[in-house]
Design brief:
It contains 13 helices and 5 strands. By secondary structure, the protein is an alpha/beta fold.
């Protein structure tokens, strides 16, 4: 699932959910505008920035980053983006960074260089699988939970959120946006869901999945992503097994580095490893190839 775009839409639709996530009042959202910021002349793009509106400039800027993949360089990139933003835009207000992980295991381990920042009030780290009771009361946070909940529980939570949306959201335009967002997440997570299941989930008498706003743009893309993920996982498993036969057990750090490779890179590694005899051969290959697209 392309979680960056999902969360961007989510925080655009429900900015209050962000502030509830960080234990502030939902009304705080009224003092902010939300946007994605691309930093000029660089390859950096910050997932989301909550900027105080003009008459509430005493409020801090909130930088939001969503990280759903293991990336040992994540914090290096995050703080580079933040400080480059501060240099380019020279804001006069305080700032905060909020990092959203689906679970703790995806957070980088080697963080010594950033420990002062991570342990300060400037940075908040959130783990979506540890969300508490707030998901039961907040529609926006409940939709966030929908992104990370397991596939088996997805239909029930989606139905509850759809009911909650119809009961609580009065504005018809906003209601449709929320239902579209729930639908998008469901189709991303369950690309093979049947027409009958969607009829039941959305409580409609006549519902054709192929006429939904996002079906055509999502289904083929998601199925291809699923195929790619399966192919990548299978290739990764084979490569790790072959490497163990050639050079013995691999350290966790090396396994993490290999898991970041694309399917094409893994296939190239499968060919190259036939010439490996030591761990140093693997380290050298990764150094030369892991950063290449």
């Amino acid at each position: 699932m392309k979680t960056d775009s999902i969360f961007y839409r989510l925080f655009q639709t429900f900015p209050s959910a962000f502030f509830e996530l960080i234990n502030l009042q939902a009304s705080e959202a009224n003092a902010y505008n939300f946007a994605s910021v691309e930093l000029k002349q660089t390859a950096f793009c910050i997932d989301g920035v909550f900027l105080p509106v003009a008459d509430t400039s005493s409020q801090p800027i909130y930088f939001v980053e969503v990280q759903f993949q293991k990336d040992n360089e994540f914090y290096a990139r995050l703080f580079s983006e933040i400080f480059l933003y501060l240099r380019l835009y020279a804001p006069t207000t305080d700032w905060r960074a909020v990092v959203i992980f689906p679970r703790r295991s995806l957070e980088p381990i080697q963080v010594q260089a950033y420990r002062v920042l991570l342990e300060s009030k400037l940075v908040t780290r959130l783990y979506l699988n540890e969300l508490g009771e707030v998901t039961e009361h907040s529609l926006g946070v409940g939709i966030i939970k929908l992104v990370v909940i397991n596939k088996k529980e997805t239909p029930l939570l989606a139905r509850n959120l759809i009911t909650k949306t119809r009961l609580e959201v009065v504005d018809q335009a906003l209601k449709q946006k929320v239902l579209d967002l729930i639908e998008t997440i469901v189709v991303y997570k369950l690309p093979l869901i049947s027409r009958q299941e969607l009829i039941k989930m959305f409580g409609l008498d006549n519902f054709d999945i192929k006429t939904t706003r996002i079906y055509e743009e999502v289904r083929d893309e998601v199925i291809e992503e699923v195929r790619d993920e399966v192919r990548q996982e299978q290739t990764l498993e084979v490569v790790i097994r072959l490497l163990r036969r050639r050079i013995g057990n691999l350290s966790q750090q090396l396994q993490d580095s290999i898991s970041q490779l694309s399917t094409e890179q893994l296939e190239n590694l499968a060919e190259a490893l036939l010439d490996f005899s030591t761990e140093e051969n693997l380290v050298a290959w990764l150094k030369d190839n892991s950063t290449q697209a």
